[in-house]
Design goal:
With 436 residues, the protein is an alpha+beta fold. 45% of the residues lie in helices and 12% in strands. α6 packs antiparallel against α8 (319-335) and α8 (319-335) runs antiparallel to α11 (379-392).
Amino acid sequence: METNTTDTEPPSRMHVNENHTHLHHHHQQRHQYHHRDILPESTILVVVIPIVLVILLLAISLIVALLRRVKSLKPNGNTKHNQNCMFISHSIITFDGGPDGKRGCIYGGSPCSLPLATSRGVQVFTYKELESATGNFTQANLVGKGSFGMVYRGVLRDGTVCAIKLLHREGKQGERAFRSEVDLLSRLQCPYLVDLLGYCADNQHRLLVFEYMANGTLHDHLHSSDGRSQALIWGIRMRIALNSAKALEFLHEHTTPSIIHRDFKSSNILLDENFRGKVTDFGLAKIGSDKLNGLISTRVLGTTGYLAPEYASTGKLTTKSDVYSYGVVLLELLTGRVPIDTNRPPGEHVLVSWALPRLTNRAQVVEMVDPNLHGQYSRKDLIQVAAIAAMCVQTEADYRPLMTDVVQSLIPIVNNLSAGSASSSFRFSKRVSPRS
């Protein structure tokens, strides 16, 4: 019986070498396959990492751009005075008509709801409530009057002292002015505007309720015959000028779209117990164009002597129209004169025409200052304020400054006056303290 010796025969050197070579070759193949498995992963990493970095960079750039945009929408560091000002945008307040076809907000003693207005603290009053608050509109409580109607001092049921404006303007213009004032002031919140506390539209009655301003109008102090203007020293006048400028700056440059007052004048600047000025009367105000200094065509309304030339002649209204009116008020503060005075000698009837050539003459500008100031002002400050007034009343609207520029020019003057006043008071207190 034959036996197969090939299975038990020890492997020859050649077989071992062949096996070794085969194993080595097999190992190399596995190693190569292993590298083939790793190569795609590294390739993916090389491609993915730059893509991720690009995406991150784009995201960071987008965030930075958004942050810059948000920052640009906020008032800058030089406009800290407007940080308490707000303009709440909403639709125009509507006053529904009653059964008799008349327009009004309250009919049959039933007040309509005004949630957007009342959310800002503006209340709706009945006529009887305001009649009671003023003691039946007695003459003793009358504190002002004008073409719009009468203003009475009143005390509301919660004890709040207020000023109640009883409007007597009839027709569409009077109704339009009433609606405009309620709508705008219910949305505006600024310390340089007189606060609207509430209103009444009870049947034919139209009344507005404002915060009470104890010292009346700037016009009455500057142009009264009882010597009240003597209380308005230079420092107080400059602070009133700054407060009024801040009010217009807010209306023009911190609301979107801008608001044009259209009837800015000294009788529409009220003074509180500390002679701080606030702007009032928005019955003629207009919402401006979305474009910068965009023109609005409208009826020419306002007060003679304060109207900008281009508005008076063409009816084209811009924020620069208010700037001109502000310049006229600044001239009133400087000179103590009214805008139109036919009792003065020829050539001096119109304040702007008389003052403009003198404002840039250092010798003549001193001569035109209100005698009630008794020279108690800095000549340097006077020249600076005169230059501001001259720019504001330029005939060409494009040459007039923005109200922000006016504010920034007045701030250092008022700050220096305040610092000087505080320093004088401190020195005075040190001087008299040993005697006390």
